[in-house]
Amino acid sequence: MIGVRADGRKELVALTDGYRESTESWADLLRSCRRRGMTAPVLAVGDGALGFWRAVREVFPTTREQRCWFHKQANVLAALPKSAHPGALAAMKEIYNAEDIDKAQVAIKAFAVDYEAKYPKAVAKIVDDADVLLEFYRYPAEHWVHLRTTNPIESTFATVRLRTKVTKSPGSRAAGIAMSYKLIDAAQLRWRAVNAPHLVALVRAGAVFHKGKLLERPTDITPEASTTEPETAESEVA
Fold first, then answer.
1. What is the Cβ-side half-sphere exposure of residue 217, based on CA atoms within 13 angstroms?
2. I need a labelling partner for 45 at 20 to 30 A (CA). Which of 61, 69, 112, 154 fits?
3. Beta-bridge mates of residue 46
């Protein structure tokens, strides 16, 4: 789990092994984070693994949900013939690269019109998850690129996969976790803060954004407080 602090810096929050994305494995990890003092994230970003989302709803019921577009694209393409992939990819990019949520919803309708007659299962993967696929539009426009995929985790864990492939096996469960931690901890030094880091504290405090722009500032936070680095980490994204 990677989080974003209230000062905009990304941070390794937790790492453990689990059983096939099970709800209980994820819930154990989230409960551990809560015991260590982590407050409920404003937004959780993840793939479609049901175990993760069930666990989030159980442990942090106020946390909002954003599905990863990288994984969603792969799921949609799996339901389409290869000949339809280029057009479908372009159509999906029109959705998550739209100027605002209204235009994204129009792009979803266009995707449905183009593909529903022949490929209803592919269309359902977008339409049925529309709310959690477009959740990122409710946050600062500067943050959209960070919120619509789990790329920070995927790119970082690629190093772990590569090392595991080279070494054939970590040797034991404990050694595997230790190796993963050291690799990710080293990579953490190169992670860059999110765009417009001063807006993260506003998001954390409950500011309302409309079409990517600040609409309503919380009454209990000052402009100075929104740019002050906190003493403890508070996750915006998990």
1. 10
2. 112
3. 67
Give the per-residue pLDDT at 230: 36
Packed helices 69-78 and 85-96: angle between N→C axes, nearest 10 degrees: 150
Which residue bears the tokens 């722009």?
A: 213
Calpha distance 69→71 (Å, rounded): 5
Q: Is 64 helix (H, G, I), strand (E, B) or coil?
A: strand
Q: What pLDDT score does 157 carry?
A: 80
Query: Quick check: 29 and 38 in contact, CB under 8 A?
Result: no
Residue 90 buriedness (CB in 10 A; 0-12 / 13-18 / 19+): exposed
Beta-bridge partners for 137: none
Determine the pLDDT at residue 224. Answer: 43
Q: Which residue ranges in the chain fall short of pLDDT 50? A: 223-238
Q: What single letter denotes the amino acid at residue 175? A: A
Specify whether the backbone of 70 is left (phi greater than 0), alpha (psi in -120 to 50) or beta: alpha
Q: What is the pLDDT of residue 222?
A: 53
Dihedral (CA of 86, 88, 90, 92) sign: negative
How far does the chain reach from its first CA to its final CA, in angstroms? 6
CA–CA dist 176, 160 (Å, integer): 9
Identify residue 51 by its one-letter amino acid code: G
pLDDT at 221: 58
pLDDT of residue 220: 59
User: Taking the domains of the chain in order of start, what are their residue ranges?
Assistant: 2-67+137-227, 69-131
Q: How far is CA 208 from CA 139, 155, 202, 216, in A?
A: 8, 31, 9, 5
Other residues' Cβ atoms within 10 Å of the Cβ of residue 41: 24
